[in-house]
Amino acid sequence: MNNRYDAVIIGAGASGMMCAIAAKQNNHSLRIALIEKNDRVGKKLLATGNGRCNLTNCHITPEHYFGSFQRQAGNIFAKYDSSFLLRYFSSLGLLASSDHEGRVYPLSRQASSVLDVMRFSCERLGVEFFCGETVCSVRKQREFIIKSKSGEWISDKLVIACGSKAAPKLGGSASGADILKNFGHTIVPFSPALCPLRVNSDVLKSLKGLRANGRVSLLHRDRAVRSERGEIQFADTALSGICVFNLSLYARQGDRVTVDLFDDISESELFKLLIKNRSLFSSLTIDNIFTGILQKRLAQAVLKILGFRDFSQICGAVSKNELKQIAEKVKKISFEITDTTGFEQAQCARGGVLGEEIDETSMQSKKMRKLYICGETIDLCGECGGYNLHFAFVSGIIAGEHL
Questions:
Q1: pLDDT digits (tens, 9 = 90+) for 88-107
Q2: Which backbone phi and psi does 39 adopt, to 5 degrees?
Q3: Max alpha carbon distance in the chain (Å)?
Q4: DSSP string of 319-385?
Q5: How far is it, in rounded angstroms, from Cα 153 to Cα 5?
Q6: Which element (helix H / strand E) includes 114?
Q7: Which of 340, 346, 345, 348 is nearest to 388 (CA)?
């Protein structure tokens, strides 16, 4: 077996496969090997967007990202925007469309369509796959020598595209960062992102499984630093949903999160509604005060959070002052954040290779020539909505164009 290659790419996910495609399209004579520790390529890609693969967003700007590579990402997106990526995928045979929020999905609404066009492109171009291979060591002599338990590859150039610690069941690990650390790179420690937030509350168990639309705001030292609107999902110890996931990018232990379940109406309008309900349901118990505007189980939990423990009081006996307090507090239901739910439930991870150590024009390491880094191994994490896959794809393309 000839184990010498022009380039070896470790990690056959979104970034690694796109890197291989771009490299072969740019120079068909290159001999490229893709090494993947899972038994098949693109395993994590199949799970993205709830299996529909939200592959990019029409509103790609660096403001939607967090991390030390953010400024350089802006330079990349000036050229490699969503229009570029959609043209690139179209050339591979994939058609896509966007929804009203700018999220782009394949027309089939199947992640397998995205994986198939990439996999078939790699096969057509002559990229060699090695699946089920966990890299044990990488060292640089005159060339790169990559070893697994069952094989060895020698390569002129090396690409690290093996992701972060997010979603370990799908292969997430710090293996790429560990290799790069040994080559002298600074690694920002990984932490879970785009995941539910654990909060301190004694009523969440009663809300498990419920969903409600509203606005969620992140408070640091009682100052609002971020706000998101969308569907809020309640778990027994955590808050979830895309709006919460986006806040998890910026949240720290000890921060607070406030929930406004009536974002569409003002506090004074809500007060008027409660006055009306007091009259309509005057003979019913106070847990019926939100009838017609909140789900019953959610209304009971909200009242408990606001300090109402005895529901025997009837609506007609609730004073105007109490209704004002309810209207005020229900638009700012506050929870203390205790933690995230960890890497198991994280869609992405903060951390990775320090941005300033990578040349964004080629994705080549500034620490070592002929070493390239792309995708989630870099300290850049985007919000939900196709931002992370977009960066994975285009950073892979850039690296591939320079192999």
A1: 999 999 999 999 999 999 99
A2: -75, -5
A3: 86
A4: -HHHHHHHHHHHTSEEEEEEEE--GGG-SEEEEEE-GGGEETTTTEESSSTTEEE-GGGBS-EEPTT
A5: 7
A6: helix 111-125
A7: 348
What are the helix (H) ranges across 229-319? 242-248, 267-280, 296-305
CA distance 144 to 149: 17
How many C-beta atoms surround the C-beta of residue 160 within 10 A?
31
Q: 374 is written with which tokens?
A: 């792309």
Q: How many CB atoms lie within 10 A of CB 145?
A: 17
Reported pTM: 0.93
Element (H, E) at 239: strand 238-240
| Residue 258 Cα distances to 15, 123, 201, 228, 344, angstroms | 36, 50, 12, 11, 25
Which residues are CB-contacts of 16 (< 8 A; sequence separation ≥ 6)? 9, 10, 34, 36, 159, 161, 162, 374, 375, 396
Q: Coil, helix or strand for 118? A: helix
Q: Report residue 376's pLDDT band, with 50, 70 and 90 as the boundaries.
A: very high
In terms of Cα–Cα distance, which of 200, 238, 204, 231 is closest to 215?
231
Average pLDDT over residues 284-299: 92
